[in-house]
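Q: what sequence does this backbone want?
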């Protein structure tokens, strides 16, 4: 008996949902009598969607499975994470159809189907973490990379190349992290392939001539001359594309993947990212590999990095561009836990991080794009809002909405009906605390903010 479940997960719960799936897979489900297969697929073109192929020996085995303790625990644990769920009926299937069904399903899963090899994925992620200055993330990426075939010399080459794009301080910090990772792995007895250093260049090697040829190839056969700053033009040709790109440790394809991974992590460098995404096609990167980069960054690096890469790749390949939301750096202001206690008073998902324990200090509230709380009133107290990240709105009843950006401070008078929440295209974080609060202070929750009212805000 076969059943297929199509599940859509809220993006903010994606990592948590995947972990819950891993946890349930580690239980006794594999030994459960009558359960032949539970095969999960994460869709390649939309990482928030999953397809699960369920095969049971009989209808009775299926009924037994859905009433087991670990299944019920999993169902309860993931209920908040699932945006939609579609199930087909439990149907018999002959074994002749099984191979074709597996083939059809795996064509749509991201598992082992990226055109980017695991080694290439490693190069993109290492570069992204280096550019962000995320040393702990870089160490994790390096360890995973060495477990998947990247060599020390290749990692060293990638991180050295990046000084030309992210500066010496980040490059040197990253190389220091690489040294620490190698040392830690040696102490743990883990295998780390050293690899080979770059071949020596010939004595008559002309860096300017070679670099000009490399840069011309990158630009699609058209020579590029930066006449405004001749010295920079020389550095690009002779040093970056001549001395660095000509080193044999990494191919031109590798180096462009490294460059794209890094620039995608740099706010304000969208034009350079667009140029390298376009030029990478001339250096051996395929369209499929380019389309893999945003998904990889979204899963392993962050929303902001993924969105920048997605827009650049879609623009170059002339793919339809879906609306994306600006993210925030949760390493600066913590996202906190799902705000379940007040979820019924919110449209969309919010998160709460207590910044000062139980001392009555500020809390950091995070809103996903379009999330807002209901109209409400604070009695016998004044609420203060301080925007710390992203973009949002505050509105009092009968008055125009006020845009909130980092640094915006609003003191909400006692007894005033109001709401606050995220903009449609951005995450939003604000600190909130109460002042002039009397002993019997309270909050009165009212009607939701309608889409008709909210969608007028730009």
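A:
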């Amino acid at each position: 008996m076969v059943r297929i479940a199509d599940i859509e997960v809220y993006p903010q719960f994606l990592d948590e949902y995947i972990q819950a799936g891993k946890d349930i897979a580690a239980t006794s489900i594999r030994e459960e009598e009558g359960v032949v297969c539970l095969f999960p697929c994460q869709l390649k073109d939309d990482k928030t969607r999953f397809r699960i192929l369920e095969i049971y020996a009989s209808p009775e085995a299926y009924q037994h499975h859905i009433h087991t303790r670990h299944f019920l625990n999993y169902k309860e644990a993931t209920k908040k994470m699932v945006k939609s769920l579609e199930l087909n009926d439990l149907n018999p299937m002959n074994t002749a159809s099984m191979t074709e069904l597996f083939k059809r399903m795996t064509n749509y899963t991201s598992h082992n189907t990226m055109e980017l090899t695991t080694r290439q994925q490693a190069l993109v992620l290492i570069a992204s973490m280096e550019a962000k200055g995320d040393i702990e993330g870089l160490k994790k990426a390096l360890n995973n990379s060495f477990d998947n075939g990247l060599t020390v010399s290749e990692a060293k080459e990638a991180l050295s190349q990046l000084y030309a794009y992210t500066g010496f301080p980040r490059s040197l910090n990253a190389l220091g992290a690489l040294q620490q990772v190698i040392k830690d792995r040696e102490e743990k007895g883990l295998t780390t392939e050293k690899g080979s250093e770059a071949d020596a260049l010939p004595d008559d090697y002309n860096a300017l001539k070679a670099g000009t040829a490399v840069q011309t190839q990158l630009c699609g056969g058209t020579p590029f001359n930066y006449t405004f700053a001749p010295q920079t033009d020389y550095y690009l040709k002779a040093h970056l594309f001549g001395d660095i790109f000509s080193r044999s440790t990494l191919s031109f394809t590798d180096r462009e993947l490294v460059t794209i991974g890094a620039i995608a992590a740099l706010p304000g460098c969208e034009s350079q990212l667009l140029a390298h995404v376009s030029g990478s096609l001339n250096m051996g990167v395929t369209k499929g590999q380019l389309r893999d980069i945003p998904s990889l960054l979204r899963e392993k690096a962050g929303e902001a990095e993924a969105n920048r890469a997605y827009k650049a790749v879609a623009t170059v390949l002339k793919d339809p561009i879906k609306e994306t939301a600006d993210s925030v750096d949760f390493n600066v202001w913590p996202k906190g836990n799902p705000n379940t206690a007040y979820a019924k008073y919110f449209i969309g998902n919010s998160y709460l991080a207590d910044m000062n324990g139980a001392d009555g200090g500020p809390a950091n509230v995070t809103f996903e794009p379009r999330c807002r709380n209901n109209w409400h009133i604070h009695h016998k107290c004044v609420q203060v809002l301080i925007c710390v990240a992203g973009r949002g709105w505050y509105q009092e009843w009968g008055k125009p909405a006020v845009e909130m950006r980092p640094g915006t401070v609003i003191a909400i008078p006692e007894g005033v009906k109001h709401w606050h929440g995220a903009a449609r295209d951005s995450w939003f974080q604000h600190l909130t605390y109460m002042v002039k609060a009397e002993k019997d202070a309270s909050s009165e929750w009212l009607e939701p903010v309608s889409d008709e009212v909210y969608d007028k805000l730009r």
